[in-house]
Amino acid sequence: MLERVVCARGWVQRVRDRGATKTLRKEGEKDNGEWGDNEMVRIHAVSRYKEGRKTLGPSTLPLNSFKMVAVLVTGANRGIGLGLVRQLVKEPSVDIVIATARDVGKAVDLKAIDSPKLHLLKLEIVDEKSIAVAEKKFAGIVGDNGLDILINNAGIFNKARLNEQFSKDLVMEQLEVNTVAPLMITNKFYGLLKKAADKKGSAQVANISSMAGSIDFAPVMASHPTPTAIYAMSKTALNMLTVKLSLEWKQDNIRATCFCPGWVKTDMGGDNAMLTLDESTVPLTKLILSLTEDHNGKYFRYDGEKIAW
Ligand SMILES: NC(=O)c1ccc[n+]([C@@H]2O[C@H](COP(=O)([O-])OP(=O)(O)OC[C@H]3O[C@@H](n4cnc5c(N)ncnc54)[C@H](OP(=O)(O)O)[C@@H]3O)[C@@H](O)[C@H]2O)c1
Pfam families from the entry (predicted)? Predict the structure, then answer.
């Protein structure tokens, strides 16, 4: 049997069942030879995602090939989300990376990532219809395997001092993007997270919060020249959502953990930030992929150090 599956960015995968011949190449390129058994299993695994399990009998696959990890990252067209996607596609344990952006057409840096694991989805995180459409499309890609890791990364930083004039809209927008949207997305993806947890033992929600959301840390942040109060409120509430998820979904084996990525050189973090994108997202990706029950309902820096609430 010969399979042909077109993946993200024009890659073509061909799998010959039970034989040793398989190729992973760009469309139009010549076949480039033999692959080892491990690669073959991985190609099979991805093919099975795409083709809805009709390709191979279970007997041809070792058990661990069923532990296929699918990750969704919001706000992946720039900044930390983009950095996380760049790292995730390199991880051997990750099979599918679904990167979302408000405008996929303009997500130039995201589209430049050359990986057959990568799928791009449109998602405006404050729009319930957009979330529903993205969930349906996601389900179409992963099928019965569900969503293993949901990374709620997209966020904004609205700045105003508490003694300045500011509008209610500014505050509501901050809360809508950083707190309400992760809540609505996580709620909508519950079924897919549960599918992955039922099948593979656990699933994970990773909320990208900030040290600014720590009440213990607020006196330290007070000396920061940038006004953080409204942003900080949104992240403190996101932290509470994380704790509530970790308790309410514990019996479903869906965990929730929140993270500070550090002060990172992005559009939000600015040029004076302490960390490059890689300095934050390389360890943060490893940390998210290594989470266990011990991390459930907790708050960590990108390097794994625990943060006080
Ligand atoms: N950078 C830091 O130093 C730092 C520190 C602590 C925490 N964080 C947190 O890390 C996360 C990422 O920050 P960043 O530095 O990468 O910020 P960034 O460079 O400003 O990127 C923000 C991302 O969020 C997306 N986004 C914003 N509103 C959205 C919406 N309504 N729908 C869909 N996507 C939306 C943006 O998409 P568009 O391009 O379409 O706007 C963009 O992809 C945020 O949650 C932030 O609070 C950052």
Answer: adh_short
Please check whether residue 309 lies inside any domain of the structure: no
Residue nearest to atom 1 of ligand 1 (CA): 269
36 lies in the same domain as 177: no
- Hey, CA dihedral for 119, 133, 141, 292, is it positive or negative? positive
pLDDT value at residue 224: 82
Per residue in 154-193, pLDDT (tens digit) is 999 999 999 999 999 999 999 999 999 999 999 999 999 9
- C-alpha of residue 266 to centroid of ligand 1, in Å: 9
How far apart are the CA of 12 and the centre of ligand 1, in A? 32
What pTM value is reported for the model? 0.83
In SS3 terms, 228-254 reads as CHHHHHHHHHHHHHHHHHHHHCHHHCE
Q: Cα–Cα distance between 17 and 60 in angstroms, integer?
A: 8
Instruction: Based on the fold, state whether residues 78 and 34 are members of the same structural domain.
Output: no
* The total number of structural domains that make up the chain: 2
Q: State the residue range of the domain holding 20.
A: 2-63
Tell me: the pLDDT tens digits for 122-158? 999 999 999 999 999 999 999 899 999 999 999 999 9
208-219: pLDDT as tens digits: 999 999 999 999
Query: Closest residue (by CA) to atom 5 of ligand 1?
Result: 263
Probe residue for ligand 1, chosen from 102, 109, 302 as the CB with the greatest number of ligand atoms within 8 Å: 102
Look at residues 17, 47, 63 and tell me which one is the last residue of a structural domain: 63
Which residues approach ligand 1 with their CB closer than 6 A? 75, 77-81, 102, 123-126, 153-156, 177, 208, 210, 260-261, 263-264, 266-269, 273
Q: Domain check: are 161 and 187 in the same one?
A: yes
Say whether both 132 and 274 belong to one domain: yes
